[in-house]
Task: inverse folding
């Protein structure tokens, strides 16, 4: 028998994740602050919760995909928060990219209640989420990992248990630093193509078909360059992600590396793209 599932955070990533939960046949409860966030679910079968506590009371596995530490803390620990409604044996999946400190703190609060907490950040894109092809890196008790695995399989294809609580966030920070570095290098390559007298659009097509291709070259060509508004939105995400990565490296006494430098330089690239006119 499938576990009942809940989901909080119905943005670009969370919305298709929750839609896949429903499509997979899970009895699903959703909660959102804004009515507009629930509009894409108008033709789907789900229960609408009054607040996170109400969602927790009807869910055995709950996915959270909100923006940052403060948002996660409010949803889980705030008045009428998730923990006040969940039952013993339930599992919280922290799909947000947050600090390891918060993930560890939430597990310590939940453990005496018999509630599992897994830090399970996701990577991919909205389209990959819709296709059920996300990468999910998970930290926490393996027993809870196994319990929540069927839920994660409804929207994830590469699901790895990385170690104790916090390990998923460490892996996500490393992945995002490499992704940001790739983005910076892709911006450099496209800029140099123009300085060499090459047609910029043709250069992008060749790079995407050749060995220089990368996931973030596609993001650059398809979303960031044509859409300055998206570039402005991405600046905050990259700053947050690189801050988390650098904090983890500092805690581990790791010296600054090319990964830090290239990853942080991608913020400057995004700022330049945000100032462009579409097209």
Result:
């Amino acid at each position: 028998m499938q576990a009942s599932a809940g989901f909080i955070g119905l943005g670009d990533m969370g919305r298709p994740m929750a839609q896949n939960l429903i499509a997979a046949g899970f009895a699903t409860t959703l909660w959102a602050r804004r009515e507009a966030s629930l509009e894409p679910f108008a033709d789907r079968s789900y229960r609408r919760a009054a607040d996170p506590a109400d969602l927790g009371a009807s869910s055995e596995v709950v996915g959270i995909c909100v923006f940052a530490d403060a948002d996660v803390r409010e949803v889980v620990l705030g008045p009428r928060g998730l923990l006040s409604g969940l039952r013993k044996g339930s599992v919280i999946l922290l799909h947000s990219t947050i600090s390891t400190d918060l993930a560890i703190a939430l597990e310590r609060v939940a453990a005496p209640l018999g509630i599992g907490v897994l830090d399970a950040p996701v990577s991919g894109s909205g389209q990959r989420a819709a296709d059920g092809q996300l990468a999910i890196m998970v930290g926490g008790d393996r027993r809870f990992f196994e319990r929540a695995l069927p839920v994660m399989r409804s929207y994830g294809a590469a699901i790895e248990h990385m170690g104790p609580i916090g390990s998923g966030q460490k892996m996500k920070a490393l992945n995002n630093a490499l992704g940001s570095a790739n983005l910076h290098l892709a911006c450099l390559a496209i800029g140099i193509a123009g300085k060499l007298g090459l047609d910029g659009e043709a250069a992008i097509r060749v790079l995407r078909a050749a060995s220089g291709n990368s996931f973030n070259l596609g993001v650059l060509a398809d979303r960031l360059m044509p859409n300055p508004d998206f570039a402005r939105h991405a600046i905050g995400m990259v700053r947050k992600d690189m801050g988390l990565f650098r904090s983890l490296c500092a805690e581990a006494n790791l010296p600054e590396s090319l990964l830090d430098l290239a990853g942080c330089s991608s913020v400057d690239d995004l700022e330049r793209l945000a100032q462009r006119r579409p097209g």
